[in-house]
């Protein structure tokens, strides 16, 4: 095998890997965007947001009394578990219910694993996010 041939394979592999990553993220974002179309929100107040979170939590068998819903412009939308409670933060009132369902699926499947330790970003990126997106958008539980 000549030097040029090895370089050719490396360049081809790099482009294939790059294409795969870009396709993956486009697909993930497309599913999340589809959620906005499928489940548009008419939530206008914090109180309604809390009620929808409680309603959707009960559908998943999660006790809504363990979830603290926060609206904070300075935080990103997400959920984490601290001291046995789930802190669900929204930057603003969600435009679609799939965002709420997505975060609740993290509560169901992922938050307990990372309560007292650092998040494993590979797990989060390739298992937790697609799984929560599938539930948020299509209601598929895996
Ligand atoms: Zn997520």
Describe the structure.
With 142 residues, the protein is mainly alpha-helical. It has one domain (3-138). 57% of the residues lie in helices and 11% in strands. The chain contains four helices and three strands; from the N terminus they run ααβββαα. It has a three-stranded mixed sheet, with helices on one face. A hairpin with a 2-residue loop joins strand 2 (78-82) and strand 3 (85-90). Helix 1 packs parallel to helix 4 (121-138), helix 2 (46-59) packs across helix 3 (97-109) and helix 3 packs across helix 4. The radius of gyration is 19 Å and the shape is elongated. It binds zinc ion. Zinc ion (ZN) binds at residues 102, 106, 129, 132.
**End-to-end CA span:** 45 Å
Order of the strands making up the biggest sheet:
1-3-2
Number of domains: 1
**Cα radius of gyration in angstroms:** 19 Å
Instruction: Tell me the major beta sheet.
Output: 3 strands, mixed
Strand percentage lies at 5-15%
Q: Cofactors and ligands present? A: zinc ion
Low-confidence stretches: none
Share of helix among residues?
55-70%
Give the overall average pLDDT. Answer: 90
- Please state the structural category: mainly alpha
């Amino acid at each position: 095998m000549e030097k040029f041939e090895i370089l050719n394979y490396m360049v081809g592999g790099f482009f294939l890997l790059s294409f795969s990553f870009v396709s993956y993220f486009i697909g993930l974002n497309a599913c999340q965007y589809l959620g906005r179309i499928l489940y548009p929100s008419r939530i206008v107040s914090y109180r309604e947001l809390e009620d929808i979170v409680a309603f959707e939590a009960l559908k998943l068998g999660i006790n809504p009394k363990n979830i603290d819903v926060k609206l904070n412009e300075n935080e990103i939308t997400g959920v984490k578990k601290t001291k046995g409670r789930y802190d669900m933060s929204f930057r603003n009132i969600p435009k679609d219910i799939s965002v709420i369902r997505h975060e609740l699926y993290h509560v169901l499947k992922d938050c307990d694993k990372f309560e007292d330790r650092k998040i494993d970003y590979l797990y989060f990126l390739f298992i937790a996010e697609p799984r929560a997106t599938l539930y948020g958008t299509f209601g598929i539980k895996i």
